[in-house]
Amino acid sequence: MTKQSQEKEIAAPSLPTGLAMTKDVCERCSTPVVKKELEQWFFRITAYAERLLQNTYKPIFNWPDKVKLGQRNWIGKKEGININYPIIQLSNNPISTNKYIYNVVVFTTRPDTNFGATFIVVAPEHPIIEKITTPEYIEAVKAYIKTSQNKSKEERVTEGRKKTGVFTGSYAINQLNNYKMPIWVADFVLMDVGTGAVVGVPGHDKRDFEFAVVMNLPIKRVVVGKDGDTSKITRPEQVQELEGKMINSGFLNGLEIQTAISKMMDYLEEKGWGKRVTTYHLRDWLISRQRYWGAPIPMIYCQHCADKGESWFSSEEAKKMSFPRRPKADPPLAEKRESIQIDPRVKPEDDNQRAENDNKWAVGWWPVPEDQLPVTLPDVDDWRPTGTGRGPLAGHPEFYKTTCPNCGGAAQRETDVCDTFLDSSWYYLRYPSVNKKSNVIARRNEMTTKQSQEVEIASPVRQLVRNDNQLPWDPDITQHWFPVDSYIGGAEHTVLHLLYTRFTWMALRDWGFIKIKYQISNIKDKEGYKLTDSGVANAPQNDVILANEVRPESDLPWDPSEPFKRFFAHGLIIKDGAKMSKSKGNVVVPDEYIKLYGTDTLRTYLMFLGPFDGGGDFRDSGIAGMYRWLSRVWRLAMEKVPQVARVSKVPRDEEKTRDTLDTRGTLQMLHKTIKGVTEDIKHLHYNTAISKLMEFVNWWMENTDQVDTTMVIDFLKLLAPFAPHMTEELWQNLSVSRVAQVPQVPPEEKARGTRDTLDTRVTFSSIHHEPWPKYDEKLLVEDQVTIIVQVNGKMRDSLVLSTQNANSQTVIEQVARASAKTQKWLSGNSIKKVVFVPAKLINFVV
Questions:
Q1: Does residue 60 sit within a domain?
Q2: Fewest CB within a 10 Å sphere: which of 11, 251, 615, 656?
Q3: Is 185:121 a contact under the CB 8 Å cutoff?
Q4: With 90 as the cut, is the pLDDT of residue 461 above it?
Q5: How many domains does the chain contain in total?
Q6: What's the mean per-residue pLDDT of the chain?
């Protein structure tokens, strides 16, 4: 699962640390960035690419579509074919002009258009460049590569950017038609995408078309679209990419694109010129960081073992733990046309040779023995980066000097530390087990008691756990509580953080570090959990039945190979229309607003700003408005209903209280609000829930006499999740708590001169422990309906009628004709037609 290889680090000459940026100029010092090659550690997340992808298509993968799409796009699975193109040189070449010297492998998902290929483009980082560039072009190629090195990936692939490139002097042979395609170096091709080389089909790819126009390269049409246009392609809008039939393509002529793709792949494989492959945009996870703060990488390098070619990675233990690597995409050398002579000295690298080359980095490396874990950071005075490509720990011999776990000789610890994404990829496992060291294991939460049956879900790969005590989480807690029911995170982390977290969960579970038990809960909750003095929740007897049964994952209502059952991404809050940034000085500091308006105002305003997944624009005028609204609620409860504040106990007989109300509309408004707020909170629609509370307050202000004590209490319960402190205070001021007598004042309080009034204590009753209000479906049915009256399609009046008459055209027409507003428009006109929509409108056509 671990490897080490070279990777470029982006840095600025004036700064001693790597930059987490993509621009070509450092935003701090305004100097051009440079890229340094460093030996760094990786996790082989690519071995899990297919599992990570396929899980997102499962019906039980209950994540937002936008998040699933982001995961899929980052994994970037493409099914296509690798095509071998032999390379020849035609100018100033000591080798015969018809002699094959090398081959370039190109990945494509559209081999059907290969009859229209006119050039090859390779990335500036492609290793073949130095082998095939001819002397007359070598200086230009070197200069171009140097310029490209300081460009960011985003800059290189920006759509619409003018294409640049330089010719190598060599040609690739299209074996379908023996066409000699010039090989170019261009920075819009990336080495980490596909094979780092693309075949240019400018007639049917817009990016290739742009390059061909700039470099004056031939453009051939091999696909005709639905418009039947077979003319020469000279404009971008003529480039046909997705639909059409093949022309000028030999045995593919007349075929639809999808059929032609499959047939061409079959043909290339049959000839030995290509091989079907699956590629992924996903790359192995770079975990090395050259800084102080981070988890030390627990690896040791021994030069003595390296000299003998020994390492842990070639040991028998390593072989037992190895995962199959993702297959390499390079196909064998292709069979060539008779006009091309194959140099027998040029042979493809076989799998064994590749595996041997891949492990050259590993010699001398050994993991820190398990009894020496964890490796902890030393206390240092200077933790600043060095700018040498090595972390600051490299300057502390007391840390890095150690002995080799294999030969016992002098060795050195790795001085890089781990990416903090690694910590965040498993922290959720630790949260429920924070008390593990003190052996306080709460196996059940006293607030969620259910009688259940549990069946164990087996790990799918192998068990490597030697001792559960070595784990930083309690296996019993993990078995019961996981996977996580709902995970809420920022939208900016919906790709990498979640992908790394899913990978870490899968790997730990495969190794046997995580075991899950599936809990089948009964419909009814069962009372009986009690909290002991030690803080451990004891379950009633026979609450859990353990079955020695392995349940197939396909039978489960969730996927145990995933850490989270559901994920919700919250939006981004901006300030006055701009993204918050420390450099811009527009960061919202909560303390300042809490001092002005209080915590409840800030809390309620943040949830009112916009949709949960959309964020919102934080404005000072907006939070001031929220403060005014909450103040209005306070006054309504304390001033406009003064009799309530003097009641010693809230009436519990709701029917008696509600019998005193004047109209049914009062209860309808309350229950409509309860239903709306309840459903909105359930779906995380906090902004609309608060809007419904505001609507109720507006109604309340106009109908103060209709508000009774119970309605005030129910409203406060609905508001409590948003403004917990204010509603708690109102709850207490409404005399909800009851008085209890304390037999005697404690001696220590008497000694301090405690007043006699302390003999009477208040038994605290929190609004947050009260049951949530329930709505009555019968009270949601409207007993009145508004009918729109139109004359010639224009609204002239509206009628409020009972629902009993809502569908009666006769009654509604009679009432509408009698209306003075309607008569104004009907007077003197003959009615030609009456259009009636039950319970909605009536339209008189005159």
A1: no
A2: 656
A3: yes
A4: no
A5: 5
A6: 80
